[in-house]
Amino acid sequence: MDVEHWLRGAWELVPRNARAASYPALQRLYSSGASLLDVRALLEPLSVLRTTAALRRDAGTTLGLVIAGTARDVSAIARHVLGSVPTQPLGHEPAWRLGSLVADGLRTADVVLVAVPEVLRPWMPRSLVIAPGSVAVRLSVETGLRAWHAARQPLGAYVRKVRRLGLGLEVRRGPETVRRFHADFYGPYAASRDGDRAVRHRLALYRQHLRRIEVLWTLERGREIAAYLAIDHDDRYRFLDVGYRDGDRKLVERGVGHALYAAALWRAAELGHDVIDHGPERPFLASSHLDYKLQWGAHLEPDPWSTRILGVGFREPNGAAARRFLEACPLVVRDDERLVGLVEPGCARLGTLERRFAGAGLAGFVPP
Question: Does a structural domain hold residue 267?
Fold first, then answer.
């Protein structure tokens, strides 16, 4: 008997309002249980990338970096910091050697970034800056629709692009729809973006949520060209993955993604949701993905489901490399229950960051 399938079916019999009301308690229970289960992380090796490369937001600065965590962590952090995932092979270290890995990295590299379960925090040197492993990004459906209709820049340009495209939209559910999305849209797009280092969600994850998953298809002259996969949760509409036919990135440039985004807002409203959940984002403020979501009115929140942390250390905490890194890659850190931005004093981009994140969930900016 498939116990998980039985439990999910039983959960569906609970009235929707009761399920939604129970989420805060479930989040606390999940955090407690996941923290205990994360002790398993001691048995799993860390993937390690050692590289020397230019920063994505400061091409004139080349730093020595050590990035460690799961393969997914390494790829995501490298994309945020460097703009792409280096092709050299990853090394591997036992998790119980985390302290030595960081100490060795701080002797040989300018910056060390380590993403691990919070249960491993005692193994990390106290000199590291500790950021949450992820932050939640949420958008009020009403706010998003109001921004779309107002068409103020840059959304005005998006509206005009979408109208010129004249695309059709369809919502479909079912295992075959999900399989086609994963095989022909999401997988190729992830590969076109990250190459051989692409780390993608497995089809098995989609199947776990099959009762609630739907795919929003964008059609051009009746032909599917792009799609969003979303989960219709009790308390929110959750964006999970996006894909383009055969991984064609030119469709992104044409503005097809704007049409998907607007359609998802309408769909969330149609289903009676107040909030779109963009899922977790890595704790980096200099992110084009985050910038795009903020343009629609999204804001940052502590991620209630996260049990991971990101440790960031510098060989010379007061040196030029640390200043350059924080200038190019300002971080989100927690100040008690609040989120704040961590920036270098005198950061040239501070004014821009303050304007961008005003009212977007940050309580302010602090020095390291």
Answer: yes
